[in-house]
Design goal:
This protein has 622 residues and is α+β, with helices and mostly antiparallel strands. The protein folds into four domains: 275 residues, 2-Layer Sandwich (BirA Bifunctional Protein, domain 2); 108 residues; 59 residues, no CATH class; 147 residues, Threonyl-tRNA Synthetase, Chain A, domain 2, CATH 3.30.980. It is 40% helix and 22% strand. Strands 1, 2, 3, 4, 5, 6, 7, 8, 9 and 10 form a ten-stranded mixed beta sheet that branches. A four-stranded antiparallel beta sheet has the order 13-14-19-18, covered by helices on one side. A hairpin with a 5-residue loop joins β16 and β17. The radius of gyration is 26 Å and the shape is globular.
């Protein structure tokens, strides 16, 4: 099946079960300073899973675009990608295990036509030390569902991946694994959860590629969670039914939720019974384009073709959501994607300057599902072309530097190789190739040690920069979120209605607002904006949340968040005085203070350019 067909079938299937289709959130998380990118389907819905009513109701379904930067270096095998889509359906205190598992099984076997003999499931094995029982409810449901297809589903204890490699399948169909594999909470395993945190067991569905032989380096025997590639996880239903108490025990939640995630590309690969995810039509279109341009075959250079296809697709969606190449924060990853794509395009033998046109063909296959990609197609191609041109100049300098440090040497240190990687974007493979041509050995172990140190430092810095917990709703963050609304309204009043939000980041310490405006603000304009915000703070405006049809919110003049698609019913926050005079109106589902008088005084710390036509303000509350 084709990717667009699987997505459409899934959305329609759950719409027929009275679910409301909600649009995908942006890859840039809304007012979540704790993470750079939206990396899972549930991430934009956390506040609703924690109890806030959703304007579209208690049954929701979507396909969420996701990006995981940690997977960049893993791309090259047949299943890792940086960008992917996660199919999701949610029950917010509505249905639970019986309907969820039945619907998922029906969708996979009747909707997608997967052979039920190829499907295997995992469930939570329970945890005696925390008095959390085995998920026998799910086991009973799965046995009944498989029986309807004439399959006897034996349940088997495995526990851990290591033990799975020792005991194997044991003729089982349902497998018990521990908390590492079949328990979900934001904090991880039950013992890591703080008091008050919700969590629960999950049940995963795996598809078996019978033509893939088990690789014994992963264990003597194969099992669903084996990494040999024979089994592919395609669906996961999380049942949020527990809450950790102050005493450290677990109690049942009054509102039980379902959070389902199914990898779209994975389900599509299973529907085609082909373990190579890069043969799914949207990625394969890019690969065919590369074959035509280079005269090379995918079968001969799989890793290079996969890296270029994945990185181009990822960059297209990042740029469409406003993440252009830079050396900091999110833009660093767009830059890294494109520069790796250039490097491996050269390995394939693609003509210089063709990546932008290739990306154009990638845009076309997603244009219907994601109109923002089609609408920004020209900008995407221009950005990719410009980044390739810049990188080729950097490559020239890097080659010159390699020539200098490689003179009269037989050994290149790992630190020298890492400097080429860090400063000039040379992947280790490129340094190894150049070194081999000159009879030089590279200290690969030291390089990997330097790379690990760099990655650890980056994660630590990121944890500090984006601290506050997932979807941080601390009081200080709420205050700055409210100030953010006032600041945007003030900018529009002082500079003009052409000003719109183009990005934001809010922590408990400061706010950052990117907005459309072509010129640097004068000191007088900045003071006028700052004074206006503080005037409205002192007026004690009320922050009022209203739910209304999207068209009504648009007619009201409510500002939309850049890159966000909205459903038919939306949440709008209005800052108004006691006479009903509105100062700020924004589409927003986040948390705010009740009254602007709680904020204190806003001070603009910095105003600067971000890119052509986009300015940035950083501000604090004092």
């Amino acid at each position: 099946m084709k990717l667009n067909d699987v997505r459409a079938k899934y959305l329609k299937f759950f719409e027929n079960q009275d679910h409301k289709i909600i649009p995908s959130a942006s890859l840039v998380p809304e007012n979540d300073p704790t993470t750079l990118f939206t990396g899972s389907g549930m991430q934009p819905l956390i506040r609703y899973l924690l109890g806030q009513p959703h304007p579209m109701g208690s049954r929701l379904v979507d396909s969420q675009k996701c990006f995981r930067s940690d997977d960049i270096d893993e791309v090259g095998d047949n299943r890792h990608t940086t960008f992917f889509e996660m199919l999701g359906n949610w029950s917010l205190g509505d249905y639970f295990k019986e309907k969820q598992l039945s619907w998922v099984f029906t969708f996979l076997t009747d909707g997608i036509k997967l052979d039920p003999q190829r499907l295997y499931v995992t469930v939570f094995a329970g945890e005696e030390k925390n008095n959390i029982p085995k998920d026998m409810d799910s086991v009973k449901i799965w046995k009944e569902l498989f029986a309807q297809k004439g399959i006897e589903a034996k349940d088997v204890e495995i526990g851990t991946e290591e033990n799975g490699g020792k005991v194997g399948m044991q003729a089982g169909r349902i497998f018990y694994y521990g908390a590492k594999k079949n328990w979900w909470s934001r904090a991880g395993a039950p013992e890591k959860m703080p008091a008050g945190e919700p969590g629960g067991p999950d049940s995963e569905v795996f598809y078996e590629f019978t033509n893939v032989e088990h690789n014994k380096k992963f264990g003597e025997y194969c099992h669903p969670n084996c990494d040999c590639g024979r089994f592919l996880e395609i669906a996961n239903s999380v049942f949020m039914e527990y809450r950790k108490t102050e005493q450290g025990s677990f109690e049942k939640l009054p509102q039980k939720n379902v959070d389902f995630g199914g990898g779209l590309e994975r389900i599509c690969a299973a529907s085609n019974n082909n373990a190579d995810m890069f043969l799914v039509d949207t990625l394969y279109e890019l690969i065919k384009g590369m074959e035509e341009l280079s005269g090379k075959k995918y079968e001969d250079l799989k890793r290079a073709f996969r890296i270029v296809a994945d990185h181009l697709r990822g960059a297209v969606f990042m740029i469409a959501d406003g993440v252009t190449p830079s050396n900091t924060e999110r833009g660093y990853f767009t830059r890294r994607l494109l520069r790796r794509a250039v490097r491996y395009a050269d390995v394939i033998g693609l003509p210089s300057g063709e990546l932008a046109e290739l990306a154009g063909s990638g845009v076309l296959s997603y244009g219907h599902a994601y109109p923002e990609v089609q609408q920004t197609a020209d900008f995407i191609k221009k950005t990719i072309s410009g980044e390739e041109e810049k990188f080729r100049k950097t490559l020239e300098k890097g080659l010159a530097q390699f020539g200098k440090i490689g003179q009269q040497k037989t050994l290149l240190s790992g630190k020298e190789a890492f400097d080429l990687y860090q400063t000039y974007g040379f992947p280790l493979e490129m340094t190894l190739e150049l070194a081999k041509e000159r009879g030089i050995t590279v200290d690969e172990e030291e390089f990997r040690s330097e790379l690990k140190k760099h990655q650890d430092m980056s994660r630590t810095a990121s944890a500090g920069r984006f601290k506050g917990g997932l979807a941080d709703t601390s009081y200080e963050t709420m205050k700055l979120h409210t100030a953010h609304h006032l600041l945007l309204a003030a900018l529009r009043q002082v500079l003009g209605v052409h000003v719109h939000q183009r990005g934001s980041n809010i922590t408990a310490e400061r706010l950052r607002l990117d907005f459309s405006h072509a010129e640097k603000l004068t000191p007088e304009q900045l003071k006028e904006v700052e004074d206006l915000v503080n005037e409205k703070i002192n007026t004690n405006l009320q922050m009022i949340r209203k739910e209304m049809p999207k068209d009504e919110a648009v007619n009201l003049g409510a500002e939309m968040e850049f890159g966000v698609k909205y459903g038919d019913i939306v949440s709008v926050y209005i800052a108004q005085d006691t006479d009903g005079n509105m100062f700020s109106k924004e589409f927003c589902g986040g948390s705010h203070v009740n009254n602007t008088g709680e904020l204190g005084r806003l001070r603009v710390v910095k105003e600067e350019a971000v890119s052509a036509g986009v300015r940035r303000i950083r501000a604090v509350l004092e």
